[in-house]
Amino acid sequence: MRAAFLHSDIFRVLHDVAYFCRFMHDLGMDHFVSERQSRILGELRAKGRVAAQDLAQAFGVSEDTVRRDLREMAGRGECERVYGGALLPGGQTVPLKTRIGEQPDRKGMLGRKVVELLGEGSVVFFDAGSTNLAVARSLAEGFRLTAVTNTPAIAAELSGRPGVELIMIGGRVDPAVGAALDSTAIRQLESIRPDVCILGACGLTLEDGLAADVFEDAAFKRMACAASKTSLAAITSDKLGLGAAFHVHALEAPLSLVLEADADEALMAQLAFRGVEVHRCDASITSNDKKSSRGNVL
Q: pLDDT for 134-178, tens place per residue?
């Protein structure tokens, strides 16, 4: 009888110890999860998007753990989950004035490659985007073209340049996108037929093609593509494999892409199979300016 009571006491003690250990483990895990999700939220607010693969590497956890974090954050309305990662919720995007200062060397290299593909004397629509501003800055002195844009920052860069005839599409400027997207801008765009639309995009996946974060911006981009003979987009590698909320252009002709030197070979093959003309920059840039943030493009 005494042995039975002793056995019962030992069992109770072991149960209490196990419960205490589990409680402390969960408390510690909750702390780490909370800290990790706070850092993810900070990245989202700074960059507008995050890639699950990069977060997993940064935190030393599995991609499943990161996806679980993003799922919980989306449930609280802190982000919107997309293929390969997450975006700011509700069609939010990082303001253009912030994006202009990010990754200047990478965007400059893409800009110079795009300029190589432009025909002198052509009519070119410059869509909103910091990479497209880099294209405008890369134009050689005296290069002749008619530039059409709804983006004041790009218009300011091209204004007064020898050889450039500038047409500014006006209207209310969206403070985040940095471009005119309203009904006034749409009416003006309807009367223009560019030779090429230099398209901005927030993400690229094989499933959904090029996409944008803001509904009105995506709609304006689609109209600009439809009005142009051909479209061209220069995409930094951190956008490959990342989706965005609103569709812009399928990965099919007459679309051309300019990608960085390290663009995924499997992606390149898939794009070629779909008839997309792809141009790759000749050399990668310094590791100081380049941050690997690619998702799974396949």
A: 999 999 999 999 999 999 999 999 999 999 999 999 999 998 889
CA nearest to 256, candidates 215, 197, 296 = 197
251 inside domain = yes
Determine the residue type at 239.
K
Residue 295, domain member (yes or no): no
pLDDT, residue 95, reads: 66
Instruction: Tell me, yes or no, whether 233 lies in a domain.
Output: yes
Residue 204: give the domain boundaries. Answer: 96-280
The alpha-helical segments, DSSP class H, found in the chain are 2-47, 52-59, 63-75, 96-99, 104-116, 130-138, 152-158, 183-189, 215-227, 265-273
Whether residues 49 and 104 share a domain: the answer is no
Residues 147, 232, single domain; the answer is: yes
Q: Is residue 251 a contact partner of residue 298, using CB atoms and an 8 Å limit?
A: no
Query: What total of structural domains would you count in the chain?
Result: 2
Query: In angstroms, rounded to a whole number, what is the distance separating the alpha carbons of residues 268 and 271?
Result: 5
Which residue matches tokens 């099919």? 252
Question: Measured between alpha carbons, how far is 49 from 239 in angstroms, rounded to an integer?
Answer: 9
State both tokens at 74.
């989306």
Q: Select the more confidently predicted residue: 125 or 285.
A: 125
State the pTM of this model: 0.70
In a domain, 198, yes or no: yes
* Radius of gyration for the alpha carbons in the chain, expressed in angstroms and rounded: 24
The SS3 of residue 126 is strand
Q: What end-to-end distance do the CA atoms of the chain give, in Å? A: 67
Interstrand relation of 209-212 and 246-249 (parallel, antiparallel or unpaired):
antiparallel
Tell me 208's DSSP state: T
CA distances 176 to 37, 48, 92, 181, 216, Å, are 25, 11, 8, 11, 12
CB 206 within 8 A of CB 172: no
Q: What is the CATH number of the domain that holds 56?
A: 1.10.10.10
Single residue among 50, 65, 87 that ends a domain in this structure: 87
